[in-house]
Amino acid sequence: MANRERLSPTVFDIPIAKIRRGYYSAVYFSREKRILEKRNHAKMVLMQVFQKKNAILCGTDEAIAVLKLASGEYRDPERAYKLFDRYVEKQREVRKLRIVEKNYNKTELVTREMLNLEIELDRIWEDKSAELGISSLYDGDRITPWETVMTIGGLPQHFAHLESVYLGILARRTLVATNVASVVAVANGKPILFFADRFDHYENQTGDGYAATVGGVSGVATDIMGEWWGKKGMGTIPHALIACFGGDTVEATLAFAREFPEVPCISLVDFQNDCVKTSLEVADRFKAEGLTLYGVRLDTSETMVDESIIRNGQFGQEKPTGVTPTLVENVRRVLDRNGHDNVKIGVSGGFNRAKIELFEDRKVAVDFYGCGSSLLKGEGDFTADIVIMDGKPASKKGRWFRPNPRLERVS
Q: Helix (H, G, I), strand (E, B), or coil: what is residue 46?
């Protein structure tokens, strides 16, 4: 269900000076803005935003924040452009001084110069956001093809340079939220953990984590993925830690439990490609030590067949590689037989909607799913069109104003 309270613009780390200048926008949008400014264009327009799929909408609060912070014009554009160029040069200089030269005194000095330039740009900026009329749906709303999700009314030169930015935000956030919701829908209430940190650029993590939470995930991998919600990342043991313990999963898991006693301990049990044997070894040792093992996670590579399947000769119609229903049942069986029925089983590695649906249809004893790259795939393009100018239809052929009574005025 959509959250009806919008996130404040202060939540987002928006590079205001660069967005106002059109640094993140297709050049033709910035040129459109400049042409309209020079001609003192005085006709009000209505911009209509939509996409073409059934989806879970996300990114509206962030897009609105961009419109609120970066709609307007410079009182002296030529001076602003020169100040901006100097501002960007100072940014580069700071990086060189700090990273290459390690000259921290000069870094501090140039950083002040850079900040002063940014403040001067703020001073000559005329904020026109209050003159815009924005109406929008909410993050988490279900949307249909061609449905109007947002309208922006005002003088086009005040927001023309922002089209690349707000459409890109809506596209990325809606894609992730929709993919996550699709997976959550078939998991029968079992937690979905968002492990997509390593499959895309790190700067995408904040917004992706937010969108994934809108879509229904129960946890995210990194702290910054939870920043907009005030949550922390979750996770326990990577394969690299086990490797540092000489491949001893038991000792690596014990080390984690002792170092982070407040964190529910989940052991990663596929390092030796014998999830059954390793799960039992870890569970037995934890019981002997008087420690609580929350769960085990199976992450067998799609190129490997677990040793338990080979030992048992379990080669039937099911593809034997990776994490399979048979492998999960093997682990569940040995844990239950040895008094570890309280230990949960999580799975990861190649899980998407189809694979989760297969596991749930077969009622496989999985307690939680970890999903990664599958939640970032696909496309969800958004489009913006001017559909009305001075109260009259003004759209290109094939587009027209589509009023949507679900839209709410943004204050």
A: strand
pTM for the full predicted model: 0.95
Tokens 């106002």 label which residue?
A: 20
361-396 per-position pLDDT tens digit:
999 999 999 999 999 999 989 999 999 999 999 999
Find out whether 400 and 393 touch, Cβ atoms under 8 Å: yes
Residue 7 burial (C-beta neighbours within 10 Å; 0-12, 13-18, 19+): middle
Contact 240, 268 (CB under 8 A): no
Closest of 381, 389, 382 to residue 157, by C-alpha? 389
The total of other beta-carbon atoms located within 10 Å of residue 394's CB is: 17
**Six-digit token string for 339:** 């008094």
CA distances from 393 to 45, 93, 387 (A): 10, 49, 6
pLDDT of residue 3: 65
The contacts of residue 361 (CB under 8 Å, 6+ apart) are: none
The answer on pLDDT for 202 being more than 70 is yes
Cβ distance 381 to 346 under 8 Å? Answer: no
Take residue 48 and report the two structure tokens written for it.
């209509």
Q: How far apart are CA 158 and CA 171, in angstroms?
A: 22
Longest dimension (CA), the chain: 80
Q: What is the DSSP letter of 408?
A: E
154 φ, ψ (degrees, to nearest 5)? 155, -170
CA distance between the termini of the chain? 21
Reading the block at residue 405, the tokens are 């009574």
Structure tokens at 177: 């939220």
Which residues does residue 74 pair with via DSSP β-bridges, in sequence order? 125
**Which of 90, 68, 70 has the alpha carbon at shortest distance from 23?**
70
The pLDDT of residue 4 is 82
Q: In the prediction, which pLDDT does 2 show?
A: 63
How far apart are the C-alpha atoms of 133 and 325, rounded to whole Å? 53
Which domains, from first to last, does the chain contain? Answer: 9-176+379-397 (3.90.1170.20), 178-376 (3.20.20.70)
Q: Which of 264, 240, 261 is nearest to 252 (CA)?
A: 240
* DSSP letter string, 67-81: HHHH-EEESSHHHHH
Tokens 């009329």: give the residue.
133
Rounded to the nearest angstrom, the gap between the alpha carbon of residue 171 and the centroid of all alpha carbons in its chain is: 11
Which structure tokens are listed for 94? 């700071």
Radius of gyration, alpha carbons of the chain: 26
Any idea which residue has 């703020």 for tokens?
Answer: 122
